[in-house]
Amino acid sequence: MNPPLRFPAERRLSSDRPALAERVYAQVKQALFAFELLPGERFSENTVAELTGASRTPVREALTRLAREGFLTVQSRSGWRVNDLDFAVFDQLYEVRTIVELASIDRLTAQTEPMGVHDLAEIWQVPETDRLTDGQAVFTLDEQFHSQLVVATGNAELQRIHTGITERIRIVRQLDFTESYRVEATYNEHAAILAAIAQHRGNEAKRLLRTHIELSRQSVRKISLHRLYEARERMREHRAALQTVTAQPI
User: Based on the number of CB atoms within 10 Å of its own CB, is 240 exposed (0-12), middle (13-18) or buried (19 or more)?
Assistant: First the structure.
């Protein structure tokens, strides 16, 4: 027997279905990102509806959206299943992301005044005492950093591709910022990349960016596997405790 889903419930505040579906989507996605819903775990729409206070229709809409994004699979007889983390696919997505961002650097360094670099420098090229230490906040800024590199090219199709990849790897990428040394490394690496772009040293900027993304990829794989191990150990202990309780005579 699986332990109960643990993502926080929000009681229904409105009958507006799109808003409800969006809230359910955000809650379930957060549970996925926190490994409160483990890869391979199955659950029903009824369970999600009870926990969120939403009706079946917005719940189904939210879960269907997550399925389209590759997080879940609907199974006709057993509800929904959390998809396994496929690191081979993640590696391919990281490769495409690298190609897109390297192309963006080529375009940026060709500009007389690389667009957006000054604004990014005010965030990343700061004294250590002014750096943020909250991992979630730095993660949000990191996504904005990489997104801005692509936005500055003015190519809407590159932006669309990059946004899609960012969404698909977010479940593992956000783990990179649970370690303080990775937060510090992100500041240092971003600052160096921006300096190279501002000085039109394109080859150096691309080398730094390629290394930066590769180090992040290696880090999130290691952290993901460790977090999965910890989560599965907690589940094993929970099941063992339940068996002990149910085995005791009344």
Answer: exposed
Q: Are residues 80 and 95 in the same domain?
A: no
**Whether residue 15 has pLDDT greater than 60:** no
Last residue of a domain, one of 54, 84, 114: 84
CATH code of 72's domain: 1.10.10.10
* DSSP states along 179-238: SHHHHHHHHHHHHHHHHHHHTT-HHHHHHHHHHHHHHHHHHHHHHHHHHHHHHHHHHHHH
- Regarding whether 98 and 69 lie in a shared domain, the answer is no
Residue 250 forms part of a structural domain: no
Query: Please, which pLDDT band fits residue 244 given cuts at 50, 70 and 90?
Result: low
Distance CA 247, CA 250 (A): 9
How many domains is the chain built from? Answer: 2
Domain assignment present for 2: yes
Domain end residue (candidates: 30, 60, 84): 84
Of the candidates 61, 80, 77, which has an alpha carbon nearest to the alpha carbon of residue 19? 61
Q: Which of 74, 72, 42, 46 is nearest to 59 (CA)?
A: 46
117 with 108: CB under 8 angstroms? yes
For the stretch 191-229, pLDDT in tens is 999 999 999 999 999 999 999 999 999 998 988 887 777
Token reading at 152:
């500055």
94 in Cβ contact with 217 (< 8 Å): yes
58 lies in which domain range?
A: 1-84
| DSSP secondary structure code for residue 9 in this structure | P
- CA angle, 181 then 195 then 221, to 5°: 35
